Amino acid sequence: MEGNDVAGWLERSELLIGRDAILTFQESHVLLVGLGGVGSFAGEFLVRAGIGQITIIDGDVVDPTNKNRQLQALNSTIGKSKVELLRERYLDINPDIKINCIDHFMIPEDMEKLLRNNSYDFILDCIDSVQPKLNLIQLARASKMKFISSMGAGGKLDPAAIRIADISQTKECKFAQTVKKLLKRRGIRDRILVVYSEEIQPKEALKMTNGANYKKSYYGTISYMPALFGLFMASEVIRRLGRLKKKKLH
Q1: pLDDT tens across 151-173, in order?
Q2: Non-local CB neighbours of 144 within 8 Å, separated by 6+ positions
């Protein structure tokens, strides 16, 4: 796409939000960290909105247990790189999109270098492990770039309980409680935009682990909740980048 051209496949989006917003999206660069149930769908919605450049990060491959909630998880993709699968998918949606792929888990030093050497119009934190999430939140906050973080979609069933707010305002989310507690130790209490759910998580949906992959436990998940978290995140990013006003229902 050149100059002020808008691709024909974005005609209906342009009809709703206008040419200026579409052109802004085409010039925007977003960073998406974590391509699981939340991140895979968040990226999908951003790409279909016409985002011009996206950097995606995940070092994982598709596991059979991913099929209940992750966009790229199919029988045919088990064992394949999540980053590579989504790169191919995004290019099939928009051949003009610029995609930067990082197919490994990043240590804090590498992430710090990435944020120092690049400028992103929005950062989406879709990491589901506590320590890597804490590191990204701290670095993103220090970078002064806009960012949004996903809290826990596990153990949730009610779409109507999903909220977007500052992390200091979250409630009934065990994951957010843990993140808040640990962030306070780093001197961080607020100014972190998050998506979370106010639905109370059932105790019987929790499973303890051996602590592998930074996880000591995890909640059961249903197909649509991580996707909805990704939808809410993408919606917030799209509205803020395009300066689209939220309509109030009366």
Answers
A1: 999 999 999 999 999 999 999 99
A2: none
